[in-house]
Each structure stands twice: as C-alpha cells, then as structure tokens.
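hey
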C-alpha cells in the first residue's frame, strides 16, 4: 500500500523511534533559549524580512533588534508589558485591508466556542509505534509566528495550547516573559499580533462539512506518540516512510464510523485487508478536504516569500508546472479582492469540495471549486500584473510591520 501507510496488529512488535523531524524554531523557542542562558544573538535564525522598505525610512537592523530583545528580557514584568503595548499600538496604527482582516478574525477567535464531541477513549498502549514521532508535527508548530491557540478540527472549538517545548522547565514568571518575548519577536519580524488566533478562526469558518466529523474525531483521538494519527498520516503521506497501525484502531473505526445497516459494511469488515483499504481511502479523502483549507488560511496570513510548511508545500505550492500553483491561485483571489480576507472567505463559502457521502469512497477534487471562484473573480484582468502588484504590496506591508515594531521597541526601551 502506498502513500506512507503500513499496518501492525500487535503491540509486541513495536520499537522506539529515533526519527527526527526538522521543524522551524518558533519565536518562543528562541525566547526560551535566551531565558535558559543561551545568548539570544546566537539563537535568532529567522529569514531576514523583505528589503523593499523605502530608503527614507531608517531601518532597524537584525543586530540592533537582537540587542533590543536582550535588553527587553532583563526588564521587570511590568515594564515589559508597557513596552509590548507600545509596540502593539505602533503596529496597530498601520492601516491596510489585510491587517484589518487579521484583526477582525483575531477578534472572532477570542470566542473559543464549545466542543461538539468528546474525544474517543483509546487504549494508551497504542499511543506508541516504531514510527511514533518524538516532536509534534501539528500545523501550529510549523508556522513562523508564535502560537498560543489551535483550532480543533471536527471538535469545532479553539483550544489554548502551551507552546513551551516538551521537557522545558520554567517558572510561571519565566513562561510569561517567554510569551511576551515571542509576541514581540513575531511583530518585529513582520507578523501582526494574534495571527495565531486569526488563523484558528479562519480554519473554523472553512471547516464547513460535518459529514466527516466521526472519522476526524477518531483520527484526532488515536495517537502515534505525541502526534494524533491524522498528523502522523499527514506527515508521512507521499514519503517512503511507512506508518504502522493496529488492528484495534481499524476495528474501532469500523465500529464507530460505518453504520451497521450500510450495504457495504459486510464487505468492508470481511477481511483485515478490506478494512485497511477502506480506512486508507477515508483518511486520504479527509486529508484532501482538510489540507486544502489549511493551505488557504495560511496563504491568507503569510507573506508570499514565506514557504508553506511541508507537506502543504509539496501539494499546493510546488504543483504549478507551467501554470499558477494552487497556492498562487489563492494569492490571486486575495489580490482580486484588494487584500480583503473576509471577502475571499465569503467568495469561497460553500464552493470548496465536500466529503463524499461515504467517506471511504474517493470524492470530487476539492480544488476545482477554488479554481472556479478564482476564474470568476479575475475575468478580464491581467492576472500576472495583478499578482505582481499584490506581492509587492504584501512584502512592503510585511516590512512596514517589522520596522514599525522594531522602531517602537527601541523607542520604548529605557535609554540606560
């Protein structure tokens, strides 16, 4: 079986994994390293922000920023809060349609909502396998801005999360300092505050098909080490790595997600192979539904020079050939709407592909609806010119946010 799936029926054959996953280091990770005693200047590993800022603006260099962040880390908690507020005001004073959209969705994201379902109770002994990851592969751990919350797919609510790396021991005061530094560092690298909450709210709006919920709940409830099984599936899809499963999980899926009166049920549970094949197709179909929506939301909040995290990059950013990639089509839609995120999501509402009635069947290509919306929005327009103008504007905005934050930080710091 392809697409990174293999199967395991017993616990006895499991072995510990030594697999390493190369994820980008978040601002909070950098801040924690600084608080732990490692010089911050040696930890700042972000890509430099775009250099399209007008020459009339005095740029704050990365070295000056590093020195300012080190100075900020030594301030009292109260003084840090004052400096952070000054930086947030400076960034908030920038008027741009995209920033207004981010602020609007960040506000929606403050309403965490109620969970629709309880997680499935699973045997703890099945949480490990020889392919179990030691590091989280959750989407929010692979974005270049700080994340303190996460949208829970299928469950429908936005959940607070502790972004502190596993095994990190910090006092409550140091955790709060690390969180302030991460928020500050994100703005100083061009990302407006609360981008994580805005992303979660966008995903909640895009997650508009309830037919897949029983399957999604099960994929999120069963774990492969620190990952949910969905995350493990997503990480290994299209790679040589084979992800091992257990008969118990397949039986649980068949019991919970295939109606006893369904005419296909008997054939689906007739053999382990038949159940495996059906589960595989269900997971693949759901992944198409979910990953498309993740790509759309990330494209709306990331500047065009920031790559999507894998495997979204391979599916939607590097799939262009001689045409526009799927990600570029989303960028083009945003450009056609003048950077209005809310208008883009309204245009896409109900147009993206849904899950098939029986989720273990292959559904329609969910991307086709996106292409139709983009086509309607760009009729008679020079799409190359539209994209070029939009990308220039996005990069300039990213730099404006970064420089406004850096200048406000330096101005608000004590002079001694």
């Amino acid at each position: 079986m392809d697409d990174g799936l293999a199967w395991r029926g017993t616990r006895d054959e499991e072995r510990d994994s030594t697999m390493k996953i190369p994820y980008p280091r978040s601002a909070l990770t950098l801040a924690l390293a600084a608080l732990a005693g490692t010089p911050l200047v040696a930890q700042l590993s972000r890509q430099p922000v775009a250099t399209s800022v007008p020459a009339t603006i005095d740029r704050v260099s990365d070295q000056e920023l590093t020195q300012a962040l080190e100075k900020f880390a030594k301030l009292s908690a109260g003084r840090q809060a004052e400096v952070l507020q000054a930086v947030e005001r400076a960034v908030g004073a920038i008027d741009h349609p995209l920033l207004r959209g981010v602020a609007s969705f960040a506000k929606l994201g403050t309403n965490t909502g109620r969970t629709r379902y309880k997680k499935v109770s699973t045997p703890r002994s099945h949480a490990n396998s020889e392919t179990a990851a030691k590091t989280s592969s959750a989407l929010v751990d692979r974005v270049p801005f700080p994340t303190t919350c996460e949208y829970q797919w299928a469950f429908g609510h936005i959940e607070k999360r502790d972004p502190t790396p596993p095994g990190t021991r910090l006092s409550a005061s140091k955790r709060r300092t690390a969180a302030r530094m991460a928020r500050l560092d994100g703005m100083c690298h061009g990302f407006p505050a609360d981008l994580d909450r805005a992303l979660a709210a966008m995903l909640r709006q895009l997650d508009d098909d309830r037919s897949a919920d029983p399957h999604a709940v099960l994929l999120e409830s069963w774990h492969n080490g620190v990952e949910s099984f969905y995350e493990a599936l997503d990480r290994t899809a299209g790679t040589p790595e084979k992800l091992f499963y257990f008969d118990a999980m397949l039986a649980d899926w068949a019991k919970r997600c295939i109606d006893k009166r369904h005419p296909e049920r008997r054939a689906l549970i007739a053999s382990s192979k038949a159940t495996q094949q059906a589960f595989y197709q269900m997971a693949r179909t759901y992944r198409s539904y979910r990953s498309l929506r993740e790509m759309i939301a990330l494209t709306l909040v990331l500047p065009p020079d920031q790559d999507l995290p894998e495997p979204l990059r391979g599916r939607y950013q590097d799939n262009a050939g001689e045409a526009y990639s799927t990600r570029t089509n989303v960028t083009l839609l945003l450009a056609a709407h003048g950077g209005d995120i809310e208008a883009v999501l309204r245009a896409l509402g109900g147009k993206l592909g849904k899950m098939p009635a029986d989720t273990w069947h292959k559904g329609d290509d969910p991307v086709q609806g996106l292409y139709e919306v983009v086509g309607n929005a760009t009729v008679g327009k020079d799409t190359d010119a539209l994209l070029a103008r939009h990308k220039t504007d996005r990069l300039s905005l990213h730099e404006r946010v970064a420089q406004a934050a850096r200048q406000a930080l330096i101005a608000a710091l004590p002079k001694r």
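The first strand starts at residue 149 and ends at 151. Confidence is low (pLDDT under 50) at residues 1-28, 37-56.
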